[in-house]
Amino acid sequence: MATITIRVQAFRLVAVLIVSVFILVLYLLRQPTHSIDSDVNIETAPELNADASGSRWSIGRAQLWYASQPWLLGANYLPSTSVNVLEMWQDQFDEITIQRELQWASYRLRMNTLRVFLHVLVWMEDSIQFFKRLDTFLDIAQKNNLKIMLVLFDECWNADPHLGEQPEPIPGVHNSQWVRCPGQSMVLNKTSWPILQEYTKQVIYRYRSDERIFAWDLYNEPECSKQVHIVLPLLRYIYSAARSVSNVQQPMTIGIATWPLSTRLALFELSVSDILTFHSYSTLVNLMQNITDLRQMEPGRPILCTEWLARPFGSTLFTHLEYFQSEKIGAIQWGLVAGRSQTYYQWRSPANAPMPKIWFHDVLYSNGTAFSKLEERFYFELNH
Ligand SMILES: *[C@@H]1O[C@H](CO)[C@@H](O)[C@H](O)[C@H]1NC(C)=O
Ligand SMILES: *[C@@H]1O[C@H](CO)[C@@H](O)[C@H](O)[C@H]1NC(C)=O
Ligand SMILES: *[C@@H]1O[C@H](CO)[C@@H](O)[C@H](O)[C@H]1NC(C)=O
């Protein structure tokens, strides 16, 4: 009896061992399955796209690219005559103003870079016209030695963009008519996402080796609309679409806009960006801490601050620019010319607020006079 029991137990043990080894082998051989919609593991997300064209740049490639760039200094740009991005790219496209203002950026402030937002609705309406205007803009930028970072999507401000005539700015209110891209109806409607995918692919494919563009910012502040659980899957979907384009010569990035860096969103952004970009409207001490954190999370990657400058918050040209320059951190402030977006008013400024003594963003009046002569001279002497 005893020997039989021992044999049965030994047999069971061997069987369990064989099954365990079999399961382990299966586990080790498993193919990562990746469908665009699936909630992929953040840590492995970039590797899942590791085909020849579509993987994240190595640190070495990113560093090599950055070494070939000057210290990038510039502004987020909306023509002073545009109330929002739709007005910039639709029939109101204002070539004369763009020419004038890009000359100021280049020759008076010695900027070499602009960050510019696009809008999918304009592309949907007439992609040929959309690309024609974008080419015109890029030509003007090139003539003025300004390289462009294009932003494909944006989750900030008004949720319901419409083509056609845009509303007038609300007096006294900061960025009163800025619109998200896509609007909330498309974000919520997965059936419409392939349109966003097609736009992403077409725009990146067309300019993938165009020297007028220096980088792709795929999605501005995905957390801005306070619905990360909805936007994150879309962000991943857009990211996959962007990476599916082969031979893209410019780095891709999704900017960090909120700390701490341990959120699902921040971890995703950090794990897919070729170059690190972030936003800070705070003091230099805060910003330096932010940069320390970024360097700790993703050592060795070039860093650009793609939104800053809020004078009343202690984020000024005098406090920040020399630091950016000494660390070769790209510096792209909010706003160039004070215009219909009214970003010289503070966030949450009430309707009919008086013109502030200290501007929030922006550096020039629409007639070209500088908000501060000292600032203008500071720029001019800094970057040469
Ligand atoms: C969702 O998007 C699809 C594709 O654009 C469109 O045909 C459909 O009407 C949309 N559904 C809703 C509820 O808006
Ligand atoms: C980074 O800067 C933001 C303000 O822009 C601040 O709220 C945040 O605490 C900073 N992060 C660290 C680690 O200091
Ligand atoms: C430009 O506009 C500002 C503000 O309206 C005004 O103070 C300044 O005198 C103007 N400069 C010129 C050269 O017209």
From TrEMBL:
Classification via Pfam families: Cellulase
Record-annotated Glycoside hydrolase family domain positions: 93-288
GO molecular function (one): hydrolase activity, hydrolyzing O-glycosyl compounds
Keywords: Glycosidase, Hydrolase, Membrane, Transmembrane, Transmembrane helix
UniProt entry tagged with the keyword Hydrolase: yes
Regions crossing the membrane: 12-29
Keyword Transmembrane helix: yes
One biological process term in Gene Ontology: polysaccharide catabolic process
InterPro entries: GH, Glyco_hydro_5
Family: Belongs to the glycosyl hydrolase 5 (cellulase A) family.
Name the UniProt record assigns to this protein: Glycoside hydrolase family 5 domain-containing protein
